[in-house]
């Protein structure tokens, strides 16, 4: 069958329209596929008025994130955190107060910790049940990432901290396990001994396996840097690792640090 010139023109135009539509659909699909791995913009911080949590808030603000803090005392938090932070009143021990805190956020960083071996803020209530409540809220809100500040030595039940502080490491491990089992993309950061110093002047060592190691310390400020860096790189997701500081050039290539880690649920 021979086609006239006008028929060929019509077919050519139709082909170009179909090709354009196909390219547009491909671009849209690529955008949808890439979006889950894009860095979050609005981050909820639990434990924001704590020594490490307040530094995480400062680091987030310095990095251009919108920050919402989950706090029990808004007046205290406002004085400590300033006016650039959105405050939401709630308590991790009360699940009913958490849904509104998560609404509209992309990710959560938890730096909560027990305040005593016994009482309402004991390790079981905060480091396990409180963390689990946060995890459940993250699941319900479809959070894109949950970063949990835990502790080195959580897999070592004979550690002296357990005897001195209400089995704190045991309960922290249970909190970790609840997060890893949730299906929410996670990053579990296990710092060594925490120091109150400026940080930023040493190399950060990333390890896995929770091996016994003496004199592993890191500043709270450097813990904050690791947590905020973990938001930026997909390689940090679904990873559990220990961190400490040692003499050496400060970290400039965070992606390389996270890329060297293996996805492992335990230890």
Notes on the protein architecture:
This protein has helices spanning 5-34, 51-62, 74-81, 99-102, 123-141, 160-164, 168-180, 220-232, 254-259, and strands at residues 42-46, 66-71, 86-89, 107-110, 145-149, 186-191, 193-195, 203-207, 217-219, 239-246. Residues 1-12 and 14-35 have low confidence and may be disordered. It is built from 9 helices and 10 strands. Helix 2 packs across helix 8 (220-232) and helix 5 (123-141) packs parallel to helix 7. With 267 residues, the protein is of the alpha/beta class. The strands form 2 sheets. The protein has an 8-stranded mixed beta sheet with strand order 3-2-1-4-5-6-10-8, sandwiched between helices. It has a two-stranded parallel ribbon with strand order 7-9. Strand 1, helix 2 (51-62) and strand 2 (66-71) form a beta-alpha-beta unit.
Task: Summarize this entry quickly.
The chain is α/β, with parallel strands linked by helices and 267 residues long.
Observed structural traits:
267 residues; globular
Q: What characteristic shape results from the CA principal axes?
A: globular
Radius of gyration: 23 Å
Mind describing the biggest β-sheet? Answer: 8 strands, mixed
Query: What are the secondary-structure elements, in order, as H or E?
Result: HEHEHEHEHEHHEEEEHEH
Number of strands: 10
CATH topology of the largest domain: Rossmann fold
What is the mean pLDDT?
A: 88
Order of strands across the main sheet: 3-2-1-4-5-6-10-8
Oligomer: single chain
H/I helix tally: 9
What's the CATH C level of the largest domain?
A: Alpha Beta
Share in helix: 40-55%
CATH superfamily of the largest domain: NAD(P)-binding Rossmann-like Domain
CATH architecture of the largest domain: 3-Layer(aba) Sandwich
Total number of domains: 2
CA distance, first residue to last residue:
71 Å
Low-confidence stretches: 1-12, 14-35
Broad structural category:
alpha/beta
Instruction: Note the beta-strand portion.
Output: 15-25%
């Amino acid at each position: 069958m021979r086609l006239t010139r006008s028929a060929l023109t019509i077919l050519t135009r139709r082909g170009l329209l179909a090709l354009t539509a196909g390219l547009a659909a491909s671009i849209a699909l690529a955008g949808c596929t890439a979006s889950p791995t894009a860095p979050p913009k609005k981050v909820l911080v639990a434990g924001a008025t704590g020594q490490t949590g307040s530094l995480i808030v400062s680091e987030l603000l310095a990095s251009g994130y919108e920050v919402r803090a989950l706090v029990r005392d808004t007046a205290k938090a406002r004085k400590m955190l300033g006016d650039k932070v959105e405050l939401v009143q709630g308590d991790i021990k009360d699940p009913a107060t958490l849904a509104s805190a998560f609404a509209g956020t992309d990710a959560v960083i938890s730096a909560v910790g027990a305040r005593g071996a016994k009482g309402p803020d004991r390790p079981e209530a905060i480091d396990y049940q409180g963390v689990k409540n946060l995890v459940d809220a993250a699941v319900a809100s479809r959070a894109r990432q949950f970063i949990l500040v835990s502790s080195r030595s959580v897999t070592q039940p004979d550690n002296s901290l357990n005897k001195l502080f209400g089995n704190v490491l045991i309960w922290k491990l249970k909190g970790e396990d609840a997060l890893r089992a949730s299906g929410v993309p996670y990053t579990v950061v296990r710092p060594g001994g925490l120091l109150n110093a400026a940080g930023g002047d040493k190399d950060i060592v990333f390890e896995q396996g929770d091996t016994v190691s003496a004199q592993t310390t890191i500043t709270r400020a450097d813990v904050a840097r690791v947590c905020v860096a973990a938001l930026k790189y997909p390689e940090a997701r679904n990873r559990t690792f220990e961190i400490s500081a040692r003499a050496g050039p400060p970290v400039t290539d965070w992606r390389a640090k996270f890329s060297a880690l293996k996805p492992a649920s335990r230890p």
